[in-house]
Amino acid sequence: LDNNCDIVDDDGSQGNGQWDQWDESDRFIHRDLETNTQYCYEVYVVNVQGLSSSAQSTCSTTGSPPNVNLISPNGGEVIQSGAIVQIDYDIENIEYVKDVEVFHKAPGYVDSWESIYYSEDLSASITIQAPAANQIQAGNAFKIKITDIGDFDGLNSNTYSDESDFSFIISSTNLSFDIWQGLNLVGSPLDLSTPFFQDVFDSYSTIGYFNGLTNNSFNIELGEGYYIYNFSENYATSVSLAGDLVLEHEIDLNQGWNLISSPLVSGIYLDSLSVRHMDSYYDWQASVSNNFISPALIGYSNQDLIHTADSMMEPFKGYWVHATTEDISLVMRPHILDLEDSESPDVFDGHDWTIKVTSHELGNENIKDFIVIGTDSDAGEGFVYSEDIYDFPVINFPGGQTNIYIDHSQDWFASNVADDGLIIESAKFLSDIRTPMALNSFKKWNIKGEAINLGSSASVKVGWEISDVGGAYPINMLINNTVVDMRQESFIVVAGEDFGDFSIELGDESLDNESPLVSEFAIGNPYPNPFNPITQLNLNIPVSSDVEINVYDVGGNKVESLHSGYIQSGEHTIDWNASQQSSGIYFIKIEYQDSAILKKAILIK
Known about the structure:
single chain; mainly beta; Immunoglobulin-like; 5 domains; six-stranded mixed sheet; six-stranded antiparallel sheet; disordered N terminus
């Protein structure tokens, strides 16, 4: 024998091989061989005199081990609690398999598998009853395991298994969720058996809104979103739903804003949606690029009392979505969801930098409103539908509230048509993203605020969050005859009756305009300019005050302080000796009270 096997001894035994009597014939059994390997043997006949015959050769190849592949469910599916489920799988080299077993792992159990099926009949399809779930149970997995037939003696069997690549959902058809005190934006992930509002919600402690008006006599339709106001004394009120699970649903959209909800018990990332337009299908990003759908999905957070810009739809929640035309629908199907990253990121986080401005009545837990302005290297200066989002409708809820929007009534809306030919349908915008700041550039956003049903003595708090931004140019809010340095402050409080027109300005306009940024005081241009190594600035300070004068390089790094402290009113000259600096462009920033001005100086050595 080859493969390091010696000739068999007279007694018929040798190492891992032996002769055996079988069906009145002799046979040689060679054990412990490698799989998928060819073994060749030479057989001799030896007489009593020790003479051998010519060798007879034979070769044979050992089989390959079996393998199993779980095909379905393999991740992203939605399965009804207790329903009959077919397990689809594939076995390679099934002739070497003895049995098959299926296991289930519930969410929260790292390596705890429960056997739910066993059979030695490999020809039968596998059907099981889905494990029970009281609510929506995400994070389930199946594992299928096979056992091979072992060696020649039926011993030393091995097992092979495969499990779900991703988790799936098991859900009951009787669900419950909480609505909270105050405003809620909700929808049903079930096709309800009894959809009438008063059969779902307590009409004594809740008010529904239908088409923007209070209404408690309408049906909760699959895929529709609804505002619900909860007057209950309890912080949270449980709502029970009963109906059918939906595995795929298409929501028809109207032109403009649509109030929708997730029709599925699974979370739905926008990037997983299909958008149908004129019988053609597009993914979400292509739909945004083609100006079919606005990129923002507007939800609402009861905990934070403010609408949110989301990128994922969740069960039981409602959302605003905007379409530019009719004949557009959203096709929703379950998909693989990463449970470790199930938070819905803000769609505005993808821009280079932004300012989020919020407004609400000071001292009252009323609804907040917000806008977003910013810049991005891929943005346009004019109206671009995929980045400049219309403001969504205002609903008159109980109690006072504020409304804030970016006003383009004098430019974009006045022209009525964008550069790409798209009709501009409104002057009110939730967001306005523009090109990045450049040297000596100036940008201004006109904003309108509305105090709705606020008391005569009410005050409005206007706050803002600024993402990291380089450069030394001023960022100022002009509101109620006040200039606020938005880099230094984070909010301002104004009387409700004064909450109206205001603006945000980036950069510095020339001294001969009407901007309050420069009307309070005046600064001349550096002279000489270019210079080497000394230049001067003339300042006119109308009221004695502290003044900060700093120099920044083009990267926004502070390189020198020229003055920090009190300056008497009147005309002053500030010298900058740049002998310690290298040649290049510098910016001199002068901060006086609530104003700031930036001047460019060029050092040439």
